[in-house]
Amino acid sequence: MAKRSRLSSDPKFLDEIKHYNEMVDLHDHLPINVDVQSAQENTMISALGSPKLPLTTVDQPERASELVKALSRSSVKVCAHVVVTGIKPALESLNGILQEAFRSEKTAGHDLESVLGTEGMLNVRYRKPTSGKPSTKISNHAWGTAIDFKILGHSAPGNTGGKIPRFVASLLPFFNKAEWYSGIGFNDTMHFEVSDGLIRKWAKGGLLKP
User: Fold this and answer.
1) DSSP letter, residue 123
2) What secondary structure letter does DSSP report for 38?
3) Rounded-to-integer distance, Cα 120 and Cα 90, Å
4) At what angle do helices 11-21 and 166-177 cross, to 10 degrees?
């Protein structure tokens, strides 16, 4: 708590929060999701098994598939404030993406790592559509291959329309390059997930074996 208090009163820390929370035009960052598609439920079940159904929209970690349980590492610190559980290849990919993004931002004179937080990764539940309508589709979080981001001290951005927070804009090209799909494609600005094609590559390459 003391450490957080010192950070919270640091002018540079507060400036970075303001910088990365600023809303920017999505149009200026198009195209997004180039050559990647959202991972389909049938792909995920084929590659990683099905969680134990039925689920709810509340996390039930004990209902994860046996393969996901075997592949998951608990509470891995990917960077300063991003501590998540996910399957091994997704965590390794995530780490590489974030380190590249952080280096790019430091070159531009900013410190994204100091303010980037998360709402988690492995979350065994149904999807929570941004329309508010109930869903019986399994969330890709249920396989530990999706992550939601936020800025420390602030809520994670949901459907932000034609504007997106600068921190998401900063991350977009690095996730796209690594074959992750941005949730902006289905009105969920906070969300990134391993793409359908990358899951298939990992399965074919034997990376989804315990």
Assistant:
1) -
2) P
3) 13
4) 70
The pLDDT score that the predictor gives to residue 1 is 38
Q: Name the DSSP letter for residue 163.
A: E
pLDDT in tens, 91-119: 999 999 999 999 999 999 999 999 999 99
Residue 107: how many CA atoms within 13 Å on its side-chain side?
7
Task: Convert the pLDDT of each residue in 161-186 to its tens digit.
Answer: 999 999 999 999 999 999 999 999 99
Helix (H/G/I), strand (E/B), else coil: 168: helix
Q: Phi and psi for 108 in degrees, rounded to 5?
A: -85, 0
Which of 91, 148, 144, 93 lies closest to 120, judged by CA?
148
| Residues 72, 122 contacting (CB under 8 angstroms) | yes
Q: Please state the pTM of the whole predicted model.
A: 0.94
pLDDT of residue 73: 74
> If residue 69 lies in a helix (H) or strand (E), which one and from where to where?
helix 66-71
Q: Are 112 and 20 in contact (CB under 8 A)?
A: yes
Low-confidence stretches of the chain (pLDDT beneath 70): 1-8, 130-132
Cα–Cα dist 45/24, whole Å: 36
Determine the Cα–Cα distance for residues 91 and 207; give it in Å rounded to an integer.
12
207/183 Cα distance (integer angstroms): 24
